[in-house]
Amino acid sequence: MRIKVFAARPDEFEAFSKYEKKYGHELSLESVSLKPETVHLAKGYEGVAFLGNCTVNREVLKKLSEYNIKYIASRSAGVNNIDFSAANEFGIKVSNVSAYSPNSVSEFAVLSALSLLRNLPKSLKRSNINDYSLPGLIGREMRNQTVGIIGTGNIGIMAAKAYKGFGAKVIAYDLYPKENIDDLLTYHSLDYVLKNSDIISLHCPLTEANHYMINKESIKNMKDNVVIINTARGGLINTRDLIDGIYDGKILAAALDVYENEVGILHVDHKNKMIKDSLFNELKSLSNVIVTPHYAFYTDEAVSNMVEYSLDSLKQFEKTKKSSYQVNK
Ligand code: NAI
To answer: Which InterPro entries match (predicted)?
Structure first.
């Protein structure tokens, strides 16, 4: 298949070259993301590969259908950047790569939680000014924590195993609980999990229904000194309410690999320019908040998987008009 690849990063080039041959595609790589201003680059191609930071809205999908493109493959797991009703209306089949190395994200979530429990960011900052004193660095042990996992899919289950490996008690909420995993975790209502967790670890997709699931009301009901880990999607948290919860002392700390308005901020070097987002800047100023650049996925294994699965999916579409990675009808 002739494929236009959007948002191609240099670290993906090796995998593109390897899997282009394996799946017999012809690729054209673009570093720009897919959005209304760049969609014209897909003209003349049969398939498109893109990432979660692309804007796959109605306007883009309409153009793709005008170019007679029927198959598009996200190299990301999250699909909240895609207008599925428009994709269905224009007869465009969409796939994602949700099964790629879930260890990449789950390990990062647990790393973030351990770092916050042991005040690692604070201690590293202190060592920069040769302050090796102890006051303020006393931590909590993972084995004494109850961890609440929201979303027990590929990543949530791996995270639960890792938290449990450190001795934590794991409770969970999922719209579709899994069976036969009582030895790993126990399912409860969302309310119960939010009320009874020392650490809340978010691993569900962002949908219209759970937008701002972490908000003023839900924060009020959480345990005092709760730690919040978000490696899922920024829109799950109302950032303003999270900041207020930290000011109030209700939330001990938060690790955020994602941010509700992250497009144009995360994955961009702002060293020499101002970030014109006062909410983000306020968040960044808090000493008990870790903000990382949406890179929980970013391991050699995961990057290779993401490229391979998207090209495998487009091959399946080409051969059978269906794909095992397909997310719409
Ligand atoms: P998955 O599809 O395997 O699992 C998602 C789970 O969430 C499913 O069990 C589903 O039933 C559950 N769920 C759906 N809606 C829910 C709700 N409202 N409340 C509770 N549970 C709900 O997805 P996977 O691969 O585990 O990824 C989870 C999310 O992690 C992705 O949707 C994506 O947003 C995020 N992600 C972030 C990355 C990063 O680098 N920071 C990388 C990869 C994924």
So the answer is: D-isomer_2_OHA_DH_cat_dom, D-isomer_DH_CS, D-isomer_DH_CS1, D-isomer_DH_NAD-bd, D-LDH-like, NAD(P)-bd_dom_sf
Residue 262 designated active-site: yes
**What domain range includes position 126?**
102-291
Q: Are residues 8 and 94 in the same domain?
A: yes
What is the CA(98)–ligand 1 centre distance, in A? 8
Per the annotation, the verdict on 26 as an active-site residue is no
What's the distance, CA 231 to chain centroid?
5
Q: Is residue 328 part of a domain?
A: no
Is residue 208 annotated as part of the catalytic site, yes or no?
no
In angstroms, how far apart are the furthest CA atoms of the chain?
A: 65
Marked catalytic residue, from 12, 46, 260, 262:
262
Q: How far is the C-alpha of 186 from the C-alpha of 5, rounded, in Å? A: 42
Residues 77 and 63 in one domain: yes
Residue 151 CB–ligand 1 contact under 6 Å: yes
For 224-279, how does the pLDDT look when each residue is reduced to its tens digit (9 = 90+)? 999 999 999 999 999 999 999 999 999 999 999 999 999 999 999 999 999 999 99
Ligand 1 atom closest to the CA of 296, numbered from 1: 40
What does pTM read for this prediction? 0.93
Could you give the count of Cα atoms lying within 13 Å of 212 in the half-sphere of its Cβ? 8
Q: Whose CA is nearest to atom 1 of ligand 1?
A: 153
> pLDDT of 57-109, one tens digit each?
999 999 999 999 999 999 999 999 999 999 999 999 999 998 889 999 999 99
**How many domains are contained in the chain?**
2
How far are the Cα atoms of 180, 226, 298 from residue 172, in angstroms, in the given order?
14, 16, 25
Helices 102-117 and 154-165 pack at an angle, to 10 degrees, of 40
Same domain, 83 and 153: no
On whether the CB atoms of residues 237 and 263 are closer than 8 A, the answer is: no
pLDDT digits (tens, 9 = 90+) for 170-205: 999 999 999 999 999 999 999 999 999 999 999 999
